[in-house]
Design goal:
Helix content of chain A: 25-40%
Helix content of chain B: 40-55%
CATH topology of one domain in chain A: GMP Synthetase, Chain A, domain 3
Largest sheet of chain A: 7 strands, mixed
Order of helices and strands of chain B: HEEH
Shape of chain A: globular
Mean pLDDT of chain A: 91
Oligomer: heterodimer
CATH architecture of one domain in chain A: 2-Layer Sandwich
CATH class of one domain in chain A: Alpha Beta
Low-confidence stretches of chain B: none
Radius of gyration of chain A: 22 Å
Strand content of chain B: 25-35%
Distance between the termini of chain B: 31 Å
Largest interface: A-B, 54 and 39 residues
Radius of gyration of chain B: 14 Å
Structural class of chain A: alpha/beta
Shape of chain B: flat
Structural class of chain B: alpha+beta
Strand order of the largest sheet of chain A: 6-5-7-8-9-10-11
């Protein structure tokens, strides 16, 4: 609760907010403090000593989030003067560090104008209003929980049910309460919820909007959500640097596996990443964007900023295509393309074949060095509970459905695929397992 | 309505939705705190004033 108050107060005071994942380790925090040039850190008591060790000169505001909000009177008894600052749309308001699955994280600087544009877009396409009650169980240190969920709800007069953490039981209790109308989540949260629900039947008719983002929603999970909740999920796409870019329509066809259509004011082009020439509709290329919601710069990283834009277009690093109805589909990240013997292999294409095999809960396909072919595809597979599955069976199904050079040469089984807090698979960690 | 920033927009929302519930904080299954839009805006203002005690 106090995090929300502090966040809004920092924006009002004209300061720049840098949300940090509480799970960051010492070396990560050292890098972030140095890069962000932070002047003040708000931290729980458990982290205070660590922060003091890392940055002895740093101003620290210790906030005990474990205590009831009402007992936190440190800011109520202050006799300070009015600290409001008139901020301009072009002033930076938020720096969100990208997850940095490769290299050091980069801080995407979002101005007040970017944040307002993003909130307006989301409120408009999803009809968020004072009639809504949002079940909020997302972390507040990512753009999803902070901007897409919290900002939009509070700006439109909704009632936010802010949970201290995600657990399937607590979320389910809120969702079945008739007051709740909106739930925003990542696919992993839906999976845990539906596993928890099992064969039980609940009435979710009062829910008008279930959204999914921050990681791909498997088509089988789209169908399962529809079956369990009686409503199709609205899959959408957004990035820390851009805010939300695409969403399936609230009232209209929602296509499983598609990120939907562009939000108002978002211009999209798909180009050949090598030539930067536009590709034909239906052809896969890099998705590039222009929108007033997009950051203009990475914090103190002019080289990386320049590399990320081409003639004003933001290079998302995502490969995708558009269908005949104007819906966009992500096919992979450029950096996850596997090049084997000169042929491009989309890890996502191979994953979708493996994920379709009965007994597979999820898979992750990566490329690892190969003396003959340069790279080869390998797969990490998590089996559904109680299912027996052999490597040979997966390989033979892949051979039936994919060219030989696309088939994974090695398959490892795991109890869990490494992911970040938003459910994005950490492919660099997966590579280390082979 | 001209919305230059999230905070000015929220100030306007607080005036419109004043006594409506803005945030209910759940620790586990129990509601620990509830704030109306008016309460939340008031606490934000207090926190802003508190921040002036730091030389930022």
């Amino acid at each position: 609760m106090v995090s929300v108050v502090a966040h809004m107060a920092l924006l009002t005071a004209g300061l720049i907010v840098v949300p940090l994942n509480p799970g960051f380790k010492k070396n990560e925090l050292e890098y972030l403090f140095c890069d962000a040039k932070a002047k003040l850190i708000m931290v729980g008591p458990d982290k205070k000593k660590l922060i003091r060790d890392i940055a002895p000169q740093m101003k620290i505001l210790e906030i005990s989030t474990g205590l009831p909000y009402e007992t936190l009177d440190f800011f109520r008894s202050c006799s300070g003067s009015c600290g409001k600052t008139k901020v301009q749309q072009c002033d930076p308001g938020l720096i969100i560090y990208t997850s940095g699955t490769t290299g050091n994280p980069k801080g995407a600087v979002l101005t007040h104008g970017n944040l307002v544009c993003d909130a307006k877009n989301i409120i408009s396409i999803w009809n968020i209003s004072q009639k809504d009650v949002l079940c909020h169980a997302l972390p507040l240190f990512h753009i999803h929980g902070l901007c897409f969920a919290l900002h939009t709800a509070l700006l439109s007069g909704s009632h936010v049910l802010l949970l201290d953490r995600f657990t399937p039981g607590t979320v389910l209790k809120r969702l079945v309460s008739k007051e709740c109308s909106v739930f925003m989540a990542v696919p992993a949260m839906y999976t845990k919820l539906m596993n928890f629900i099992g064969d039980q039947q609940f009435d979710f008719h009062h829910m008008r909007l279930l959204t999914s983002g921050s990681a791909p929603l498997l088509e089988k999970d789209f169908d399962r959500i529809k079956e369990v909740f009686g409503k199709e999920p609205v899959e959408r796409e957004g990035m820390s640097e851009t805010g939300m870019n695409f969403s399936n329509p609230l009232n209209g066809e929602k296509k499983p596996g598609s990120i939907g259509i562009p939000l108002p004011g978002v211009l999209v082009r798909i180009v050949n990443p090598d030539t930067q020439e536009k590709v034909q509709p239906g052809t896969v290329g890099e998705i590039q964007l222009k929108s007033p919601c997009i950051t203009k710069t990475y914090w103190q990283k002019p080289v990386e900023t320049e590399e990320t834009f081409t003639k004003g277009w933001f290079k998302t690093g995502d490969l995708g295509k558009i269908d005949k109805d104007g819906y966009y589909f992500l096919t992979d990240r450029i950096k996850h393309l596997i090049i084997s013997g000169g042929e491009n292999i989309s890890a996502k294409e191979v994953e979708s074949v493996i994920n379709g095999i009965k007994g597979v809960l999820e898979s992750c396909v990566v490329g690892i060095p190969d003396e003959t072919w340069g790279e080869k595809a390998v797969a990490l597979v998590q089996k559904s509970e109680g299912f027996e599955l052999e490597e040979s069976k997966i390989k033979s199904i892949c051979k039936e459905k994919l060219h030989d050079w696309k088939c994974p040469k090695t398959i490892l089984f795991t109890d869990h695929i490494p992911k970040n807090t938003m459910g994005k698979v950490l492919k660099e960690k997966v590579k280390l397992l082979f | 309505m001209v919305m230059e920033s999230i905070n000015t927009w929220f100030e306007e929302s607080s005036e419109i939705y004043g006594t409506r519930k803005a945030l209910s904080f759940f620790r586990g299954q129990k509601v620990e705190t509830q704030l109306t839009y008016f309460d939340l805006q008031k606490d934000i203002s207090l926190f802003v004033n508190f921040l002036t005690t730091y030389d930022l």
